Amino acid sequence: MASNNSVLNIVIRARDLAKGTLQKITQSIRSVGDASDNTSEDLQQMGNASKRTSADMKKMGKAGNQLNKSFAGLGNRIRNLVAASLGFYALKKSMQGVLETSDQFERL
């Protein structure tokens, strides 16, 4: 009987010693599960932020294309203005040349 009691005491003592360790392991597993849940939520938030950023980048790209078209149109207008100015300047010089020539003929 004494050996049965000593075996039973050893088993009970081993259970008591393991109980604290098992509780720590269980708590650690729960902590890892909670951290995993938090990480999953954080990843979902990052995914949503990435989608919003992607949409914003697309909008910026479209705005950049529109700005590029606007600058191209402005460049064309400036080029046409310069060409027209040079045309009028050439016409003025040729008219001055005609008038000077006719003035010279009148003086003769």
Would you write up a description of this structure?
The chain is mainly α. It contains one helix and no strands. It has one helix spanning 2-107.
| Strand residues, percent | under 5%
Could you report the average pLDDT, rounded to the nearest whole number? 84
Total beta-strand segments: 0
N-to-C CA distance: 156 Å
Helix content: over 70%
Succession of helices and strands: H
Largest beta-sheet details: none
Which descriptor suits the 3D outline? Answer: rod-shaped
- Overall radius of gyration: 46 Å
Indicate the structural class: mainly alpha
User: Spans of 5+ residues with little confidence (pLDDT < 50)?
Assistant: none
Number of helices: 1
Summarize the SSE layout with pairings:
Blueprint: H1 2-107
